[in-house]
Here is the input.
Amino acid sequence: MDNREAKFILQAYRPEGRDAANPDFREALEQAERDPELGVWLQQERAFDDAFAAKLKEVPVPPNLKEEILTGQKVIPMPSIWQRPPALIALAAAAVFAVGLLLLTLLAPQMSEQQLAWKDFQKAAIGTYEDPMFRLKKMTSNTEEVRAWLAQEDAPRGFVLPEGMRQKPPVGCTTFKIDNHLVSMVCFKTTSGELAHLFMMPRSGLSNPPQVGDPTFVQDGSWSTASWSDGKLAMMVATQAPMPELQQLFGGSPLALLQLYR
Amino acid sequence: MPPNDVPRPSFESVVETYYQPLFRFALSLTKHEAEASDLTQQTFYLWATKGHQLRDVTKVKSWLFTTLHREFLSWARRRQRFEHTEMDETDADLPTVSPTMVNDLDGSTAIAALQQVDDLYRAPLTLFYLQDHSYKEIAEILDVPIGTVMSRLARGKGQLRKILADQKKSTFSENKILPLNSDNKRENFS
Here is the structure.
């Protein structure tokens, strides 16, 4: 490692020595101990960083902000988990667990066939994507790789895709579960650069799957969605692009459908 | 302690711990106090309504900063004002800015300098100076590779130093041309 490389690494070394135990910095730090020039540079760099970080902590925060956040929390419908003391949550969780265990024993065969309402599927699918910790498991612009990966995961696949989407190379794909149902998700970019997500799961897992054939278009807040069924699969394309752009992906009516990912 | 055994913090304690660094991060991104406040509130609104889905409570900090950054990008895209340019090269010779000079600044001047750094470098740089985030966490929050974070930190620091040095130069020039303070001016021209 030369000094240039060492500087590149050490400039990410946090003020107040918070990365002192991080082995990623060890070699560069040792070099700074050996090389006086690098040592002086590091000393100056850390002094500057310490001083600037201290100044950032002085940036005033609006005095009412905390109160406004906490007040705002009181007027929005909150999931009940935030509104119960921890002990009550623990008790409730234990009770739910015990009842759940009993039901699981008695109703195991029926539960495996429990069906989802389409609306719940839509909400959960979009909610999964909106979770900030969400990541695609497979990043690729190669359609064949998407197909192979979904097959390897034994995920829902073998679907018919609208012609407009067939022209778009994928960005990546992933799978996740909603209740016990495995869902496949393939992401594309629309003409304007927004992402469009194709979600799919077996129709048999749904109590009211969308109609077979032409899609139903629905605007739900900032999301434009198209839902339809094909063979054994129920599908939804969701995007934050405007509705006309989504409709364009389907190439008008009647749909020109092409087989992909078979 | 495994993540699932860590007790879930109350909404109030999450606000108490994170609202200040989140606001400062938002301020560096939006450059406007009102928008930064809105963005911070929106982040806590999302935490209140969706945070319960987060299973690993040790990730609360990352969840909040990631959410705020995503919300900012979404706002900025809608307003079509999020522009950034990639620098071709890192400045080889960075101006020297002494810690003493930084100590002479106040918090508002410091963040004003930070706000002049290109959008692309500002987010990692602010997270770095907020100190709670390692470069790996910054990569996770911004969803970019670790190497990219390192490059953006290097370039962002270069820009920040240049901005601070320019400020210093300009203050020095102003002082030379206009040695009178405002009170003197009032006396002379009244």
Notes: Chain B touches chain A through 58 residues (CB under 8 Å). Residues 70 and 142 of chain B are 8 Å apart (CA to CA). Confidence is low (pLDDT under 50) at residues 81-92, 174-190 of chain B.
